[in-house]
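We give the chain.
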Amino acid sequence: MNILILNGGPSGARGGTCRMIRETVENGSRAKGWNVTAYDLDGMDIKPCRGCFACWLKHPGTCAIKDDEESVHKAMAWSDVQVWITPVTFGGYSPALKKALDRSIPNALPFFIKVHGEVHHPQRYENRRSFVAFGTLASPDAGAERIFHNLVRRNALNLGSVMTESRVLYEGAEKTGLADLVEELLHAAKEAK
């Protein structure tokens, strides 16, 4: 199993819960003998998508922007499970994770297919993957959590997901129980493969 961890949490003290989740996922995956590629996106040189569609029309599968996202694209393509970690921002992703996900369109084809009665782009590569997303909030916020879960589900559907799970943890969450939750979600992702 190839696990890709995209940590969109901020650097420094504010990203402590995101780093704790990243370390728990990484350690749990490595303990199973799985290959792990992990990126701490905050601080990486990832520019926003230009919307130029050169990755579809001029040089298929390759982004026109040359920066740190190139290695993230490759890891996305070969991953069996993608783990997204982010502070929940108005129900959405952190700027660092949003930029990385926006720039993933080279991994899709510029054609259309119907999935569950909806129009989507087919994936460029045959490998289908599972998505597990962890959001963090300072305290419970039912509206933001609902939006986050829906956003993850919709994005994963558009990326050809075979299984999608999302959880919200609160800042300062205890590490106790996190390892069991990660184990449960990674097991479900492996079974879906």
Notes: The mean pLDDT is 93.
